[in-house]
Design brief:
Elements lengths: L18 H13 L3 H32 L6 H15 L4 E3 L2 E3 L4 H21 L7 H5 L6 H24 L8 H24 L1 H5 L5 H31 L1 H10 L4 H13 L1 H13 L3 E3 L4 E2 L3 E3 L16 E2 L10 H16 L5 H23 L14 E3 L1 H44 L5
Length: 439
């Protein structure tokens, strides 16, 4: 949305405003809503929307499992609130066992809602502050920073209230972590959404150096392509051992309601599983309990929970020789992406092409490691207190693999753009010289 100065209403001879002026007035009113209440309430709605969905799903799940025979509606609501809190980093005790793992699927949903609401808040306050011309000339505009802070405050207040209301002596959620994650979502997701919706992002982004934008583009495309590769790898592993997953479900003697809940839980931890798959393809692997390891070179497992998604784990023991080749996957992905970016946005200087590919790959590796750091945690007692990828090793492997692949892909395409024509002409000329000449 672009910033425009409101036009002066025009009147006809009879004194009535034209239809265009009415539309302009409605647009002006829609974009100059009071900033403080709009941003604060927007943050509260961004947090409260997923919270209400969690509460509703918890009540539905309570009825599906035992038809309301045990527990109470208030207990089901408390379970839903704790699920929302866990998605915001809060640790929760269940029967004396501290759960620290985060269902990233629910966190992604909260982030998506935050973006949508933040974008709408940005549209609603876009008329505040200086216009586009004054901003482009360097005028200070505090509309987006102020709205982002108020948005974050509204979000965090909902988190604190939820933690205090849902807390019991047994569960003991951590409100500090909820506040930290609320601030993270409000500023990192809500802030850019407000800037985009208000039109400020379209004014500010051109001021960012083109090199930085290209590096971020390479990193974003590497992560997107890598996510697709991880999805395919996880799906292939699960399908190849689908009989094990079906056997787990049959041994649980689950009815239709329990199966539905199991599917929902699987979807909520699917991003976690993708990050586990990423760690496996990169080489370091992950652990599914104390004393276990899953990597391309060796798999050591122990007793595992009866959860169908665990059927995707490879068989225990030494792995086939070809699994080591899987570590070439991130290099090939980075080569492909960096080459595509070089083709679409060519730079003919060797150093610029190499730096863009390398910096984009390293940036993607750092971001992937940051996501990997929150993929694991304690999911149960005993051995299951240690579940997750080896984050530091993932950082090293991803930076190296993506960085090397980015350099190679960018340089190869740069060479093709610079010298391919002359190289082909030289080779064709050499071939013609070797051919026998007709008399």
């Amino acid at each position: 949305m672009t910033l425009q100065a409101p036009s002066t209403p025009r009147r006809t001879g009879s004194g009535r405003t034209t239809a265009r002026s009415d539309a302009d007035l409605r647009r002006e009113l829609a974009t100059t809503r009071p900033l403080v209440p709009t941003a604060t309430v927007g943050g509260a709605l961004a947090a409260g929307g997923p919270l209400l969905v969690c509460l509703a799903l918890a009540v539905v799940g309570w009825f599906l499992t035992d038809a309301g025979g045990e527990g109470s509606p208030s207990g089901a609501l408390r379970v839903g609130a704790h699920g929302w809190l866990v998605a915001h980093g809060s640790t929760v005790a269940v029967e004396g066992i501290r759960i620290t793992a985060i269902p990233l699927g629910l966190t992604v949903i909260c982030a998506w809602v935050t973006w949508r609401v933040g974008h709408r808040v940005g549209e609603s306050v876009s008329g505040h502050g200086p216009d586009a011309d004054r901003i482009a000339d360097g005028a200070r505009d505090w509309t987006v920073p102020l709205a982002a802070v108020l948005f974050t405050v509204g979000y965090a207040v909902v988190g604190v209230v939820t933690a205090s209301v849902a807390a019991t002596a047994a569960s003991d959620p951590d409100p500090t972590r909820v506040v930290l994650w609320s601030v993270l979502l409000g500023l990192v997701v809500g802030g850019p959404a407000i800037a985009s919706g208000s039109g400020r992002a379209a004014i500010w982004l051109p001021a960012v150096p083109a090199t930085v934008r290209d590096v971020l583009l390479v990193a974003r495309r590497i992560l997107g392509t890598w996510a697709l590769v991880c999805v395919l790898a996880l799906a292939a592993a699960f399908v190849l051992d689908f009989s094990t997953a079906a056997n787990v479900v049959s041994q649980l003697h689950a009815d239709a309601g329990a199966v539905v809940l199991m599917v929902v839980l699987t979807l909520l931890v699917l991003p976690n599983a993708l990050l586990f798959s990423s760690a496996y393809l990169l080489g370091p692997g992950f652990t599914v309990g104390a004393g276990t390891t899953v990597s391309t070179t060796a798999v050591v497992l122990g007793p595992l929970p009866m959860f169908p998604l665990l059927a995707a784990l490879p068989d225990q023991g030494s792995q086939p020789w070809w699994t080591d080749l899987l570590m070439l996957t991130p290099v090939l992905v980075a080569m492909y992406v960096a080459g595509r970016v070089q083709r679409d946005r060519p730079v003919l200087a060797w150093d610029r092409a190499a730096i863009r590919g390398c910096a984009g790959g390293i940036t993607a590796g750092v971001l992937l490691a940051a996501l990997t750091a929150v993929a694991g945690g304690a999911v149960g007692p005993g051995r299951m207190r240690e579940v997750g990828p080896y984050t530091f090793d993932v950082l090293l492997h991803s930076m190296a693999s993506f960085g090397i692949g980015g350099v190679v892909g960018a340089v190869v395409v740069c060479w093709w753009q610079r010298d391919a024509d002359s190289w082909l002409r030289t080779r064709l000329s050499a071939v013609r010289d070797r051919l026998p000449r007709r008399g």
